[in-house]
Amino acid sequence: MVSRKLQILCMTLLVSLIPVSVYAITLEEAARQAARQNDAKVLSARTVQKGNKRVHEIKLLTRDGVVKTVRITDNSKNNR
């Protein structure tokens, strides 16, 4: 029983460490997560097609006043 609980705990921890690019599906979700991870404000967000993949491009403004662009691959089932 303890072993099963330990397995569940380990799996939960591993899933929490997966980067946003693995599970971000919508542009809104990706923008919100990018802003949270970079402690920044979203300036703009768009989705572009790159080959057979869709990529969310989020432009952020950091607290230091730096503009940063984050690219997150859309791994949703609709994308394939």
Write a structural description:
- The protein has 80 residues and is of the alpha+beta class.
- The protein has a single domain (20-79), classed as Roll (SH3 type barrels).
- Helix content is 39%, strand content 35%.
- It contains three helices and three strands.
- Strands 1-2-3 form a three-stranded antiparallel beta sheet.
- A hairpin with a 4-residue loop joins strand 2 and strand 3.
- The longest helix is centred in the N-terminal third of the chain and has 15 residues, at 2-16.
- The chain is flat and about 50 Å long.
- The mean pLDDT is 82.
Q: What is the overall shape?
A: flat
The CATH class name reads Mainly Beta
The tally of strands reads 3
Give the helix/strand class.
alpha+beta
The share of residues in extended strands comes to 35-45%
Order of H and E elements: HHHEEE
On the 0-100 scale, what is the average pLDDT?
82
Distance between the termini: 39 Å
**Which architecture name does CATH use?**
Roll
Briefly characterize the structure.
By secondary structure, the chain is of the alpha+beta class. It is 39% helix and 35% strand.
Outline the secondary-structure elements.
Blueprint: H1 2-16, H2 20-23, H3 27-38, E1 40-50, E2 53-62, E3 67-73
Antiparallel strand pairs: 1-2, 2-3
Task: Name some characteristics of this structure.
single chain; SH3 type barrels; three-stranded antiparallel β-sheet; 3 helices; 3 strands; 35% strand
